[in-house]
């Protein structure tokens, strides 16, 4: 039985009532769906009859992820990465608000510890373990379908990434007719031969690239020179000032019709809405396709650039027979590629100039100092400084890139 199911089935009415009353809208907006599992860990720690009680006594008391210290909003080491700092502030504030609803018997440090444990050690299954329908109301429907799973022993496996992982955490498909078959079980399964004494490693990204920002936030470490790393910039504070440096190149926009200007604005809004981070660079400093196309849209020099940019959109409108384009998520990357391919080489160079300037402006916020690790061991702030150092390297590459690189 999972921790969540155990809480719903158990007799801890105080914890059940608390989980049900949580501000779920804020929790979902802040991506803090770990809360039910964290509360369940606290309940299991207090219940000596809990299946998880003995194992939880062996869990470390100190962590270095973003949830490890809820007492402070500010993270001085993240000054050079405002978007990441905003994430940390948001998560810590929501968790403190949740703590204020708790009984005085639960210290903030205990909630902080449980949240850090789940963030760094729990897994997520697409098919969560069942909660008795008669018990769902005890913790509420959202908590009841939460897929966070705390898996003793499996949770100690370290991250090897796609390159070094030799095992996977998943449901083992067995004979469904077997008496002992459990559709909700989870196993640690080797993906290749493992030698005696070799460390078992899994891929925290599940086969997909995982950024240092996520490693910092959830797990409390980063990977230097990671090929899967990214750097995000702010739209208003980084890209817009960079666009203003090419105003002289865009004087021809005064001749663009109001209808085409409206089309350009709608396209920019569409790209911004589709992307969680519209300004994104990969580890090599190369802008993502949405970032490049958005910059092209916003840096049009005049009538010819606008005509090239909106031609693929008009083609899609014609195919759909509608004035309002409905972009299928599967067709979205193809549309972006068509827009980029339709743009003039000189326009592409201008867009790269804007992005180089945006990266240069962002670099001014990133400190080059490397403070020594404070006595008492590594903290979140220490790892955050390492994260900002890696981010600085990406931005330095982005500040040098052009169309041919």
From TrEMBL:
* Annotated GO MF terms: protein-lysine N-methyltransferase activity
Entry superkingdom: Eukaryota
Q: Which PANTHER family match?
A: UNCHARACTERIZED PUTATIVE METHYLTRANSFERASE (PTHR13271)
UniProt name for this protein? SET domain-containing protein
Origin species, per record, is Proboscia inermis
Q: What is the lineage of its organism?
A: Eukaryota, Sar, Stramenopiles, Ochrophyta, Bacillariophyta
């Amino acid at each position: 039985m999972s921790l969540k199911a155990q809480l719903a089935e158990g007799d801890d009415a105080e914890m059940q009532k608390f989980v049900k009353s949580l501000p779920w809208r804020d929790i979902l907006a802040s991506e803090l769906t770990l809360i039910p599992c964290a509360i369940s860990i606290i309940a299991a720690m207090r219940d000596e009859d809990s299946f998880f009680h003995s194992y939880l006594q062996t869990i470390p008391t100190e962590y270095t992820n973003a949830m490890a210290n809820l007492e402070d909003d500010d993270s001085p080491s993240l000054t050079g990465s405002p978007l990441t700092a905003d994430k940390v502030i948001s998560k810590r504030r929501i968790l403190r608000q949740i703590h204020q609803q708790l009984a005085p018997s639960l210290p903030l440090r205990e909630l902080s510890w449980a949240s850090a444990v789940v963030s760094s050690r729990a897994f997520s299954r697409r098919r969560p373990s069942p909660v008795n329908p008669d018990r769902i109301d005890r913790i509420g429907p959202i908590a009841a379908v939460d897929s966070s799973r705390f898996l003793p022993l499996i949770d100690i496996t370290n991250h090897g990434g796609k390159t070094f992982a030799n095992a996977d955490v998943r449901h083992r498909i067995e004979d469904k007719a077997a008496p002992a078959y459990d559709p909700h079980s989870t196993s640690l399964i080797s993906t290749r031969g493992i030698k005696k004494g070799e460390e078992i490693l899994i891929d925290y990204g599940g086969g997909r690239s995982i950024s240092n920002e996520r490693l910092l936030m959830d797990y409390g470490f980063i990977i230097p020179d990671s090929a899967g790393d990214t750097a995000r910039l702010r739209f208003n504070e980084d890209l817009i000032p960079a666009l203003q440096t090419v105003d002289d190149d865009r004087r021809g926009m005064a001749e663009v019709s109001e209808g085409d200007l409206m089309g350009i604005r709608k396209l920019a809004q569409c790209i911004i809405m589709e992307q969680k981070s519209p300004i994104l660079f990969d580890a090599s400093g190369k802008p993502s396709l949405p970032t490049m196309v958005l910059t092209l849209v916003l840096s049009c020099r005049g009538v010819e650039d606008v005509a090239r940019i909106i031609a693929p959109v008009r083609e899609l409108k014609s195919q759909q027979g509608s004035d309002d384009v409905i972009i299928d998520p599967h067709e979205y990357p193809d549309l972006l590629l068509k827009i980029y391919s339709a743009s003039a080489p000189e326009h592409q160079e201008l867009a790269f100039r804007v992005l180089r300037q945006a990266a240069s402006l962002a670099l001014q916020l990133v400190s080059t100092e490397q403070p020594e690790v404070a006595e008492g061991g590594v903290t979140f702030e220490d790892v955050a400084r390492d994260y900002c150092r890696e981010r600085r390297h990406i931005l330095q590459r982005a500040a040098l890139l052009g169309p041919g690189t």
